[in-house]
Amino acid sequence: MKKSPKVLAVIGPTATGKTVIAASIAKAIGSEVISADSQLVYQDLQIGVARPTPEETQGVPHHMIGIIPPTEVFSAGEYANLARPILENLLSQGQIPVLCGGTGFYIRALLQPNCLPDVPVDPVFRETIAQTIEQYGLETLYKQLETLDPERAGEIHPNDQVRIIRALEIIEATGQKVPRSEFEFAYPVQAIGLTYQNRELHVKMIRKRLETMVATGFLEEVQAIYTRYGDCFALQNAHGYPELLKVIYGEMTLEQALDQIEINIRQYSKRQMTWFRRFPGIHWYEVDVQSKYDIITDVIKRFV
């Protein structure tokens, strides 16, 4: 008799249909979904972050979505501190929590509490960093990280201010590269990976989804958030928002912005795959080869 996992994690790069598959699995087994997405945590961001619709959630409770204002910085540690009680509560009820998302740092921080370096925030260092960003831009810090720890830099988007600063802070405090520990989860986990066999088809799907977002009001959403919050943290860091903000400023045409967003998302997708290939015991499904129904059915048959 097979042993059911304590946690199912539906993971993989962007635009692979994780939301619908995770919700369908959770509905079938009578459980709930915990989002592991660093952009879905923000309030008011909906179209550009592909926030799940009621049709997509299928009546299944979804946690860790729209929980903080777009003005706030939110770390993987903070995510884990909020998500872990939800995970523990579901486990205590005998349920199998379904994690869903592509933010590897969030998933690992939740499942492996000891993976984050025990380096306290240094206010003096952070003030110096803030001055550097104001004077020279975030790109300067990213290049510095590439020099000091190229492997860590390769895991981080050049616009990811939070993780760039944290990596440099750890290096400054320890005098060493950011430590990498083995995956040693506190819970039995079965990871379900979603990807494409045809890379070019995946790229086309990324572009198609982006164009659909614009057609359904992505630019207007950016304008509304900017009007309410100003040039806030989420607008500068969530995928697509900084480029569309430049459209509003008149610094880019919409077509130029879409081209740049597509490039950024494709690069991010590659970094996601690099990270997830290290994930232990992951079982991969190719969404352009297998139907959603077949994937969902196979997951439940094999792992639940």
Straight-line N-to-C gap: 11 Å
* Order of helix and strand elements from N to C terminus: EHEHEHEHHHHHEHHHHHEH
Rg, Å, rounded? 19 Å
Kindly state the mean pLDDT as a whole number?
Answer: 92
Major sheet summary line: 6 strands, parallel
Beta strand count: 6
For this structure, the CATH topology of the largest domain is Rossmann fold
Domains counted in the coordinates: how many?
2
Shape: globular
CATH superfamily of the largest domain, called what? P-loop containing nucleotide triphosphate hydrolases
Count up the helices.
Answer: 14
Explain what this protein looks like in three dimensions.
By secondary structure, this protein is of the alpha/beta class. The protein has two domains: 7-115 and 189-303, P-loop containing nucleotide triphosphate hydrolases (Rossmann fold), CATH 3.40.50.300; 123-174, Histone, subunit A. Helix content is 54%, strand content 8%. It has 14 helices and six strands. Strands 3-2-4-1-5-6 form a six-stranded parallel sheet, with helices on both faces. Helix 2 (54-57) links the parallel strand 2 and strand 3 (62-63). Helix 3 crosses helix 4 (104-111), helix 10 crosses helix 12 (241-249) and helix 12 (241-249) runs antiparallel to helix 13. It is globular, with a radius of gyration of 19 Å. The N and C termini lie close together (11 Å). The model has no long low-confidence stretch (mean pLDDT 92).
